[in-house]
Design goal:
- The chain has ten helices and 22 strands.
- With about 475 residues, it is an alpha+beta fold.
- It has two domains: about 220 residues, PmbA/TldD fold (2-Layer Sandwich); about 250 residues, no CATH class.
- α3 runs parallel beside α5.
Length: about 475
């Protein structure tokens, strides 16, 4: 395919100032065991080519499922016609980048597509069975997913590269009901668990069956647990919840197309402006955020983005001060940057690249382990595992609910509290950050359902986090 794309682009008409073609082949598999029954075994595949061109200052894009010479040539002709139909306008700037060359593949020990359905179901049945045993558990799920994405990218600037990414993940969850009360408990995280750019070893590392009895017992305990008390409290966020907090109130807010008011179709713009770069205090001195597309295992990891820009690590926030934004070649040029942040990503072959997160993470602190952080907290709450989220279209005002809370008294964790929620305003909330656990507690959490754009695109990203403590947070009952 790479040879085919390169050859087709070598024949682009002279009136076209730029063209790129991207072939994407995606294979996905999902297995679900629910209430002792195989509920789903689903496999899907998609294969096609997207072509984007620039001619006379206008952009044109077309896609085809016919991954053949005739199909690509037809898509190119349609893209050129769309570009020619655009109103006459000067061509906007794009920052340069070296032509992407070579091949990149994600590392793995065991390809999940080489693991049989029988072996996967054996693991899921063992985990799901360990969730059951109490009549108040009305639903018990164990699921796993695998995904392979192979891409080839060529451009008239000389790019010719290919990539292969393999991802997998797994999760267990229960719903417990007693009268009018319903409680949910999940592991290793909510909303489908936590996937990684890795092999089957990632799933085995969760020890789903070993953690299932604890998850089921906590769901039952929550049915009669006290409600989370309301008020302003010191809060310790578990690492999975902190990942979603970063995703919603930092990651999306620092997408440069949102900051430039060019992306408002899906959940809005941003409270941050390009003029804030280098000056805005986003949070306390403990807040250090990076975007790193080179992290091993990240869903936002790659060799090159979908404009052919090499993967890079960028410091977004240093010691609480905003330093950079997530950008592609066009948005970077719009504010006078010298290079792209390498954040152009597209959902499959039939969508154009837009600014998306890579792996946006908080850097580890010096607070030791979670036990150390709890021991250093006289009075507060520990909140774990996301249950719900809500944030306004500028990524400023938010409210999150978690599956569980625990009271922290005199440096010790107490029993479970149910239906906790917390709310805040982004800069004030991050200004309350006063401790982050150390490197040994830091890990990547996969988010597989990040939506943006019109037409909508779903992207997969990861966030590296460790438990962290925040002062003066508004807490209540969801």
């Amino acid at each position: 395919m790479l040879d085919l794309l390169t050859d087709v682009l070598s024949r682009v008409p002279a009136r076209c100032s730029y063209a790129e073609a991207r072939h994407v082949a995606t294979d996905e598999e999902e297995l679900l065991v629910r209430n002792a029954t195989v509920d789903r075994i689903a496999s899907t595949s998609a294969d096609g080519v997207g072509v984007r061109v620039r001619s006379g200052g206008g952009w044109g894009f077309a896609a085809t499922r016919e991954a053949t010479r005739a199909g690509v040539e037809h898509a190119l002709a349609r893209a050129l016609a769309i570009a020619a139909s655009q109103p006459a306008a000067p061509a906007g700037p794009r920052v340069p980048c070296p032509p992407a060359r070579g091949h990149w593949a994600s590392p793995l020990e065991r390809d999940p597509f080489d693991v049989s359905h029988e072996d996967k179901l054996e693991l899921l049945f063992a985990a799901e069975q360990a969730l059951r045993g109490d009549s108040r558990i009305v639903r018990s799920d164990a699921t796993c997913e695998s995904r392979r994405v192979q891409t080839a990218f060529a451009s008239t600037e000389g790019a010719a590269c290919s990539q292969e990414r393999v991802e997998c993940g797994a999760a267990i969850s229960v719903i417990a009901v007693d009268g009018d009360e319903l409680q949910v408990r999940s592991y290793p995280g909510a909303h489908g668990g936590s996937a990684a750019c890795a092999g089957w070893e990632h799933v085995l590392g969760f020890d789903l069956a070993g953690n299932a009895p604890r998850i089921a017992a906590e769901a039952i305990e929550l049915l009669s647990a006290p409600d989370c008390p309301a008020g302003r409290r010191t809060v310790i966020l578990g690492a999975e919840q902190l990942a979603l907090q970063i995703h919603e109130s930092i990651g999306h807010a620092l997408e440069l197309d949102r900051m430039l008011l060019l992306e408002a179709a899906y959940a809005g713009t941003s409270w941050v402006s390009p003029a804030d770069l280098g000056a805005l205090r986003y949070g306390s001195q403990h807040l250090n955020i990076t975007a790193d597309a080179t992290l091993c295992g990240g869903l936002g990891t790659f060799g090159w983005d979908d404009e052919g820009v090499a993967a890079a690590r960028t410091a977004l926030i240093e010691d609480g001060v905003l330093r950079a934004a997530l950008s592609d070649r066009g948005s970077a040029a719009a504010i006078g940057l010298a290079h792209s942040g390498g954040c152009a990503r597209a959902d499959g072959f039939a969508r154009q690249p837009i600014v998306r997160m890579t792996n946006v993470s908080i850097e580890p602190g010096e607070a030791g382990t979670l036990d150390d952080l709890v021991a250093d907290t006289d009075d507060g709450l520990y909140l774990e595992t996301n249950r719900s989220w809500s944030i306004d279209d500028r990524r400023l005002h938010f409210q999150f609910g978690t599956e569980v809370a625990r009271e922290v008294r005199a440096g010790k964790l107490g029993g479970l509290l149910r239906n906790p929620s917390y709310a805040g305003v982004t800069p004030q909330f991050w200004s309350g950050l006063d401790a982050v656990c150390s490197r040994a507690q830091w890990r990547l959490w996969g988010v597989g359902n990040c939506g943006k754009g019109e037409p909508g695109q779903v992207m997969r990203v990861s966030h590296g986090t460790a438990p962290a403590r925040f002062r003066d947070v508004q807490v209540g009952v969801a």
